[in-house]
Amino acid sequence: MANRAGRLSFTPNYHRINRTPVRSADVKALAFELGFSFVGVAKAERMKEEERRLEDWLNQGRHGTMRWMENHFDKRVDPTKLVPGAKTVVSLMYNYFPEDDAPSREGPKISRYAYGQDYHHVIRAKLKELVWRIEELIGAPLDGRVFVDSAPVMERDWAKRAGVGWTGKNTLLINPKAGSYFFLAELISDLDVAPDQQIKDYCGTCTACIDACPTEAISPQGYLLDGSKCISYLTIELREAIPEEFRGRMEGWAFGCDICQEVCPWNRFSKPHAEPAFLPHPDLPAMTPGETREMTEEVFRKVFQKSAVKRTKFVGLRRNIDFLNPPS
Q: Could you tell me which residues are annotated as the binding site for cob(II)alamin?
């Protein structure tokens, strides 16, 4: 079970017979209290359609150098392989849209999701607290695991199945009431609650994200992303030198990219988050483009010590900035 120290343990199935019945609405209410904006439930089962799509995507090499995506294929498409005995996948959305987007107005730009503290740690703590509260509610241990962009979980597909949004032409999860600036997280467990209905796709004939992508990473028809061309991949996942074919096409992005979200009409409904941990470091909004370009490793460690940006390390961010601004 979960506790305030944040550990999950696995428990024998006989505990299920002693549980207090719980409704989907009860679980959602607990999640809302912890700051999650939207919550949905899907049945834990093998995703056959998504399985075929993922296999094709990998076979086409659209994942670039992210070879880890080829691993644990069965677990990616079947949550019962990842969490034996799982009955439901609870998908949760946590808002990260900032009130002040100064770091993304001028280059070198930082993706909005990385302004504050590393979301993995912040949201995982909330997920563990959620499990603890569910266990209090049902009066027995819960057999399951929590995930936030971790392990082989196809989070966007599960969020779509859980009815909290649809997969847009930019391949991001879009909620019709609040847009796409959300972190996705999951609780996969033996909790037995009714699943939610999926919602329809509202992208319609819009091609804003396709037209705006400077590296043509989104297919002309949408719904298919060539990860090896995506600016987020080039500035975060790629460990090698950025290919010369992308020089002059990065539009100032040094870590991640928000272009396909910035132009998405549904993000007119985005509202600023209320999470203190996601506020930017005080020095980040104040940095001029020149100061960012001349950033030292000492400044990098000070500003990004708790941010997801630290994933690139100083040498990675320096590479990205230099690629945007080659020596004359």
A: 76, 149, 167, 170, 173, 184, 232, 257-258
Residue 46 CB coordination number (10 Å): 12
Q: Helix %, strand %, coil % for the chain, to 5?
A: 40, 10, 45
Q: Do 184 and 212 belong together in one domain?
A: no
Q: Are residues 23 and 150 in the same domain?
A: yes
Q: What pLDDT shows up at residue 195?
A: 97
Domain range enclosing 67: 13-97+115-189
* 7 domain-assigned: no
Return the bridge partners of 175, or none. 179
Q: Which residues fall in the annotated binding site for [4Fe-4S] cluster?
A: 203, 206, 209, 213, 230, 257, 260, 264
* pLDDT band, very low/low/confident/very high, at 106 (cuts 50, 70, 90): confident
Among 189, 224, 245, give the residue marking a domain's end. Answer: 189
* The overall pTM is greater than 0.85: yes
pLDDT of 70-81, one tens digit each?
Answer: 777 899 999 999
* Percent of the chain residues topping a pLDDT of 70: 94
- Contact call for residues 324 and 109 (beta carbons, < 8 A): no
Count of domains forming the chain: 2
For residue 183, the surrounding DSSP H or E stretch is: strand 182-189
Tell me how many helices (H) and strands (E) the chain has: 13, 8
Q: Which of 143, 159, 189 is the last residue of a domain?
A: 189
Which residues are identified as catalytic? 149
Q: Which residues fall in the annotated binding site?
A: 76, 149, 167, 170, 173, 184, 203, 206, 209, 213, 230, 232, 257-258, 260, 264
At 247-273, the pLDDT tens digits run 999 999 999 999 999 999 999 999 999
Average pLDDT of span 61-75: 80
Spatial distance between the Cα atoms of 291 and 306, rounded to a whole number of angstroms? 20
Residue 71 pLDDT? 79
Assess whether 231 and 131 both reside in one domain.
Answer: no
The 3-state DSSP class for residue 171 equals coil
Q: Tell me the average pLDDT across 170-193.
A: 97
